[in-house]
Design goal:
Elements: E1 2-4, E2 7-10, E3 13-16, H1 27-31, E4 34-36, E5 39-43, E6 50-53, H2 55-68, H3 77-90, E7 97-108, E8 121-132, E9 141-145, H4 166-178, E10 183-187, E11 193-196, E12 200-205, E13 208-211, H5 222-233, E14 238-241, H6 246-250, E15 254-259, E16 263-270, E17 273-274, H7 283-295, E18 306-308
Parallel strand pairs: 9-10, 9-16, 13-14
Antiparallel strand pairs: 1-8, 2-3, 2-8, 4-7, 5-6, 5-7, 6-18, 7-8, 10-11, 12-13, 12-15, 15-16, 16-17
Bound molecules: 4'-deoxy-4'-aminopyridoxal-5'-phosphate (PMP).
Pfam families: Aminotran_4 (PF01063)
InterPro entries: Aminotrans_IV, Aminotrans_IV_CS, Aminotransferase-like, B_amino_transI, BCAT-like_C, BCAT-like_N, Class-IV_PLP-Dep_Aminotrnsfr
Protein name: Branched-chain-amino-acid aminotransferase
């Protein structure tokens, strides 16, 4: 279940959601020139606090994405983090939640001519938060290979989380859903596996986990990086980052998605091909369990990844 918190941060002010409005001339609305993050906060295992998972990494990626689009006149990482914590407290966030900072191109500066461009345009920043529990089916999801190719890095930089790029994801997931699937696997222009519409993909083969490399035209997921660390350090699994052809996914022992939103989601069917069902011995489940323990602060070694709200 998701429910919007009543207050939103917009350009340095705290306003009611219905008053957090922007003019139709906003550049990002016209041209997709915004960058954003999706971040989760989790109730701690003792139920006393809400912890934001890997906030530093998310804000770093936000600012890296922003600098690529010349969105430079926005608050610093430290200021953005403080604004996020402040907003969650003002909204009295006491359950699992989702945090969405968005930095965007706003208005043409005086003397700057009309048109598509990045310089000569002011920047803005908004933050909104929601209550959000896990939303993915626990027993696994069904995916299809999309006929839409993943945007290539030489068209729109894939490492940056740019609003306009999500047209590609929206087309792919919509088409998958209309055909009765939950999500779509996207191939890159070389025909190799890239990622799903809002998550990264892993396969499991003989106790090894394999995922497309960072140069497979993927967003470098923070959950992906987390899975790689946990698989190696906590589960002693071998991890390979290498190109994957579609047929290798069909023949894998297991397959799962990783992402802030989908968390760790087992994939049980790809097109008409059924993978092994998930049981207590599944590698995917051990990864999901350890991930859940880490985000809820049950494992001390990884407490540096958690930022307490209160
Ligand atoms: N790829 C895409 C296209 C995404 O939108 C996301 C979600 N941010 C991911 C991968 C996973 O990234 P993360 O683990 O940082 O949420």
């Amino acid at each position: 279940k998701t429910a919007h918190h009543p207050l939103v941060y917009l350009n340095g002010e705290i306003v009611e959601t219905q008053n957090a409005t922007l003019p139709v001339t906003t550049q990002a609305f016209n041209y997709g020139t915004g960058v954003f993050e999706g971040i989760r906060g989790y109730i701690s295992h003792e139920g006393e606090n809400v912890n934001i998972f890997r906030l530093d990494e998310h804000i770093r990626r936000l600012l890296n994405s922003a600098s690529l689009l010349l969105i430079d006149d926005i608050p610093t990482a430290d200021e953005i983090q403080k604004s996020i914590l402040n907003l969650l407290r003002l909204n009295n966030a006491r359950s699992d939640c989702y945090i969405r900072p968005l930095a965007f191109k706003q208005h043409l500066l005086p003397g700057s001519g009309f048109g598509v461009k990045l310089s000569g345009v002011s920047s803005g920043l908004s933050i909104n938060t929601l209550n959000m529990r896990s939303y993915v089916k626990q027993d696994g999801i069904r995916c299809t290979f999309s006929s839409w190719r993943r945007i290539a890095d030489n068209a729109i930089p894939v490492r940056a989380k740019i609003t306009g790029s999500y047209v590609n994801s929206a087309l792919a997931i919509e088409s998958a859903r209309l055909s009765g699937f939950d999500d779509a696997f996207m191939l890159n222009t070389h025909g190799n596996l890239s990622e799903a519409t809002t998550s990264n993909i892993f396969i499991v083969k003989e106790n090894k986990i394999i995922t497309p490399p960072v140069n497979a035209h993927i967003l470098e997921g923070i959950t992906r990086a987390t899975v790689i660390i946990l698989a190696k350090e906590r589960l002693g699994l071998e991890v390979e980052e290498r190109d994957i052809l579609p047929s290798e996914v069909l023949m894998a022992d297991e397959c799962f998605l990783s992402g802030t939103g989908v968390e760790i989601s087992p994939v049980i069917q790809i097109d008409h091909h059924h993978l092994k069902s998930i049981n207590d011995e599944s590698t995917t489940l051990s990864i999901r369990n350890i991930y859940q323990q880490v985000v809820r602060g049950e494992i001390d070694n990884f407490s540096s990844w958690l930022t307490p709200v209160y």
